[in-house]
Specification:
- 8% of the residues lie in helices and 46% in strands.
- β3 and β4 form a beta hairpin.
- With 243 residues, the protein is mainly β.
- The strands form 6 sheets. Strands 6-13-12-8-10 form a 5-stranded mixed sheet, with no helix packed on it. A 4-stranded antiparallel sheet has the order 5-7-11-9, with no helix packed on it. A two-stranded antiparallel sheet has the order 1-2.
- It contains 2 helices and 17 strands.
Length: 243
């Protein structure tokens, strides 16, 4: 009896468990169930014997543990350390900004993953769940749309088998552009426009002003003229950079 208990304990240490009634009726059959629960990633192998009054039968038991191993990478498949921080920078309010990442499965079994869903309204992530075959990867899209000029932090966590296996913290800040007009002389500044005074017919006269971006993010603008008597031109890029 002690020997049987010792053999059972040895099997369990390897991850095997045997269930049987120990009785086989005449001309009948009896099930012997072997349950394998891996204890480690190592391969295991052992033998068991089914002993009866007329002899025994030997059986080989062999098992290998498998697991899924998820890793978060950037768009070029470079690994991102767990709990590191990615600063998205200062971005225009109410504008969408998309970043792409990859979740890779470096394990030898498929993985069913999900993302923690308590994310701030400024962030959207796709997909929120899915499956990844062993050795494969899936594209993860992170969309950031700031709603104010405050910083927003979002801890993205990937959950596999009920555990957080990889993740990163995102930080983004909203900003606005603000145009200021710079006039070349006090007369135009007082007018808040361009005073051409008297101009001879069919003789073009040119005046200019400067548009300065006093905001925190680049700003796009365009100049529109609603009369044929004037012609506008821009002598700088369409995007005015922030200071």
């Amino acid at each position: 009896e002690k020997l049987a208990e010792q053999l059972t304990a040895n099997l369990m240490r390897l991850g095997f468990q045997i269930k049987t009634t120990g009785f086989c009726p005449v001309s009948g059959a009896s099930a012997v169930e072997v349950i394998f629960t891996p204890k480690s990633n190592a391969n295991v192998e052992t033998k068991i014997r089914i002993v009866y009054s007329g002899g025994f039968h030997s059986f080989q038991l062999r098992g290998q543990a498998g697991s899924s191993d998820l890793l978060l990478c950037d768009s070029e498949e470079n690994p991102i350390a767990m709990d590191s921080t990615i600063n998205l920078g200062l971005l225009p309010i109410q504008k969408s900004h998309l970043r792409t990442f990859i979740i890779k499965n470096n394990g030898n079994l498929p993985a069913n993953f999900s993302l923690r869903r308590n994310m701030p309204k400024e962030f959207r992530v796709k997909p929120l769940s899915g499956s990844i075959d062993a050795g494969d990867g899936i594209i993860l899209q992170v969309l950031f749309m700031p709603t104010n000029d405050q910083s927003t932090r979002f801890p993205l966590r990937v959950i596999n088998n009920g555990e957080e296996t990889c993740g990163v913290d995102f930080v983004g800040t909203g900003g606005t552009g603000r145009l200021e007009v710079q006039y070349e002389n006090s007369k135009d500044e007082e007018l808040q426009g361009l005073d051409f005074d008297l101009v001879a017919t069919r003789f073009p006269v040119s005046k200019s002003l400067r548009m300065k971006n006093a905001g925190t993010v680049p700003l796009r603008y365009r100049a529109v003229c609603n009369t044929y008597d004037f012609r506008l031109s821009l002598d700088s890029e369409e995007t005015t950079k922030a200071p």
